Amino acid sequence: MDDKIQLEIVTPRGRALVASVDEVTAPSVHGEFGVLPGHLPLLAALRTGIVSYRQGSDTRLCAVGSGFAEAGPDKLLILTDEFTERPGVDPVLVRTELAKVQQELVKLEGVPIAAADTKGADSQSAEARARREVLVARENWLAVELELYGDPPPATQRPHEEFGPPAPPPDDEVPEPSEAPGES
C-alpha cells in the first residue's frame, strides 16, 4: 500500500486538479468526510463546499460544486460541475453577482412556489420553484468562492430551503406494531 492518495478533480471542462496528497477532506451532502491512504471504497454525493488537501506540511484549499466522489485505498476522484482555487476568485465580481442573485431571490419571495411533489401545480408555481433552486445553487457557489477567498458573506436561511433529514412518513403509512405473543 502506497502512503499517498492520487487526488483528481474533474469538471465538464476537463481535469481541474491532479495531485499526489497525504490526506483529503471533502464536503458530502451528509457532512464532511476525510480520506487517508488505505481508505475503504466509498461513493459519496458532494455538496458545494471547500476541499482541503495536505501535501506534507502544506495544506491547500479549493472550492467545488455539487457532484460525486469515489474513494479507494490510493485514489480519490471528484466529479463536479464547478471548481476554483483562490487565485481564480475575484471578490468584487463575485460580490456583485451575489447581490444580483439575492435580489432575484427576494423578487421570488412573493411568488407562490409549488412543492416538488405537488401534483397539478400551475406552470408559474413550478417555474418559480425551478428558478429558485437555480438561484439558491448559484448563491451557494458564490458564497463558497468568497469563503475560499477568506471573506465569506453572512449566513442566510431561506424559508423554503430543504435541509436536514427527510420528514417521517405520515401516520397512515406507518405499519401498526404487531401484538406481543400471549396478548389479546
Molecular structure report:
- This protein is α+β, with helices and mostly antiparallel strands and 184 residues long.
- The protein is 24% helix and 32% strand.
- The protein contains 2 helices and 10 strands.
- The strands form 2 sheets. The protein has a 5-stranded mixed beta sheet, with no helix packed on it. A 5-stranded antiparallel beta sheet has the order 4-3-6-7-10.
Give the number of helices. 2
Structural class: alpha+beta
Q: What percent of residues are in strands? A: 25-35%
User: In angstroms, what separates the terminal alpha carbons?
Assistant: 61 Å
Q: Kindly state the mean pLDDT as a whole number? A: 86
User: Sheet with the most strands?
Assistant: 5 strands, mixed
Q: How many E strands?
A: 10
Fraction in helix = 10-25%
Order of helices and strands: EEEEEEEEEEHH
Strand order of the largest sheet: 2-1-9-8-5
* Rg over C-alpha atoms, rounded to the nearest angstrom: 21 Å
Overall geometric form: flat
The parts where pLDDT drops under 50 for at least 5 residues are none
